[in-house]
User: Which sequence fits this backbone?
């Protein structure tokens, strides 16, 4: 004991601005040609036998797979592979990969792809250390205690999975799409080379942009009112998407556009924009329910749902936040009726997603009115969702109905 006087005033936990603890451990290699050090990076971190996870044969056809394996071999590393990850990645492939890791003594995972590939690798990394079926982690029956290290070569700007501790996996048998969260599965490093994203087709580019913007919305629209700095940062990420999204769709090989979107994607969901904030996340829960049943592309689903959520939660209590959004993100005139200005922001969002050729209704995914009860139930699971605005099953159904 120092014998000093303990000042209670320094230990009071209630404060005007919400407390937070922030730690970001993913090392980022951003830009051209950085991939040359992948092997060395894994070796330096103690890896020796690497499982490369990927989706379709695209990375084999375009030479990225050979480039990565050459770099691993140059560093004297052993590697093995598992391909076939699909968008809305499945638990079945995770099970197969966990077995492979155990049998082949894998000690490092390298995800080469978008969010689906990264989330698969993260789940495998944790799954190796649990005795139960890996799906148990997604239904609260198994805790993540340990995980193999994961590295990433990102090929699509969207989820932020390359820099966060989340993984989202689908179970076709139970038609569930659930998430796990743990700092233990946060990638140790990620390579972000805009050139790797040149080939992303316009539809997936747009869906990625819609996902990045949705991550911004989920955190921007929060119950706290004293988060000036983080809100301005979030608006900057949104403006980056609005500016560069259409350019990247038109000119896939525009380095500046791809680079800005790539970094925007990571910044939107690496915990920075949620410092001091309680995220809402209702729209993500609704979209995951839709994806679980109808296998829709995540960002496209969000582009349909978010504008309807915005219209539904606009109220006397929330109108000022929507006004900020309209003025600071879309350049709406600040003076005038707050409701009119707020609506201008929501309409601009609808117009933007339309201009990005995103779907505008759930029926485009095959959803019918008779599906809405099930979807509302899956999204809410007997509880309310959302923190900016709490929604029960009936409210969620109403939003889904409007989105139909
Ligand atoms: O199989 P490949 O060849 O990789 O094809 C993919 C896939 O068909 C393709 N693609 C990726 N990079 C490409 C490319 N095509 C051409 N050129 C390239 N350079 O794009 C398609 C979609 O890929 P996917 O990985 O599914 O997309 P995304 O990154 O948007 O990931 C979506 C998944 O992540 C989850 C979503 O729910 C969804 O399952 N999310 C994960 C989060 C996280 N871990 O933090 C948060 C998100 O909110 C989200 O829920
Ligand atoms: Zn998302």
Assistant:
């Amino acid at each position: 004991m120092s014998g000093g006087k303990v000042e209670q005033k320094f230990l009071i936990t209630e404060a005007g601005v919400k407390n937070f603890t922030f730690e970001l451990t993913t090392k980022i290699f951003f830009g051209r040609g950085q991939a040359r050090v992948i092997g060395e990076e894994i070796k330096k971190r103690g890896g020796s036998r690497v499982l490369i996870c990927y989706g379709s044969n695209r990375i084999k056809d375009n030479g990225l797979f050979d480039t990565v394996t050459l770099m691993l071999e140059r560093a004297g590393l052993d590697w093995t592979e598992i391909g076939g990850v699909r968008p809305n990645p499945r638990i079945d492939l995770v099970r197969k990969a966990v077995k492979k890791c155990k049998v082949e003594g894998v000690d490092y995972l390298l995800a080469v792809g978008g969010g689906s590939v990264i989330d698969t690798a993260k789940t495998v990394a944790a799954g190796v250390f649990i005795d139960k079926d890996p799906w148990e982690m997604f239904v609260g029956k198994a805790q993540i205690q340990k995980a193999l290290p994961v590295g990433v070569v990102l090929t699509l700007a969207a989820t932020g999975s390359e820099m966060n501790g989340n993984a989202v996996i689908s179970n076709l048998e139970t038609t569930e799409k659930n998430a796990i969260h743990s700092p233990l599965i946060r990638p140790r490093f990620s390579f972000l080379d805009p050139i790797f994203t040149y080939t992303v087709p316009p539809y997936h580019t747009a869906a990625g942009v819609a996902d990045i913007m949705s991550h911004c919305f989920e955190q921007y629209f929060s119950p706290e009112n004293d988060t000036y700095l983080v809100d301005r940062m979030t608006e900057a990420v949104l403006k980056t998407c609005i500016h560069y999204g259409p350019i990247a769709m038109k000119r896939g090989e525009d380095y500046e556009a791809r680079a800005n979107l790539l970094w925007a994607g990571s910044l939107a969901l690496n915990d920075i924009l949620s410092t001091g904030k309680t995220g809402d996340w209702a729209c993500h829960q609704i979209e995951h329910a839709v994806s679980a049943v109808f296998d829709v592309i995540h960002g496209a689903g969000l582009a349909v749902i978010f504008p309807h959520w915005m219209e539904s939660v606009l109220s006397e209590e929330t109108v000022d936040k929507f006004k900020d959004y309209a003025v600071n993100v879309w350049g709406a005139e600040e003076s005038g009726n707050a409701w009119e200005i707020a609506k201008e922001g929501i309409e601009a969002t609808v117009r933007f997603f339309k201009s990005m050729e995103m779907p505008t209704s759930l029926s485009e995914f095959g959803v019918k009115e008779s599906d809405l009860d099930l979807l509302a139930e899956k999204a809410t699971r007997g509880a309310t969702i959302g923190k900016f605005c709490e929604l029960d099953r009936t409210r969620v159904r109403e939003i889904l109905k409007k989105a139909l």
Notes: The mean pLDDT is 96. Residues 55-56, 58, 87-89, 113-117, 119, 155-156, 158-161, 164, 166-168, 196-197, 199-200, 204, 208, 211, 269, 284, 298-299 surround 5,6-dihydroxy-NADP (ligand 1) (CB under 6 Å).
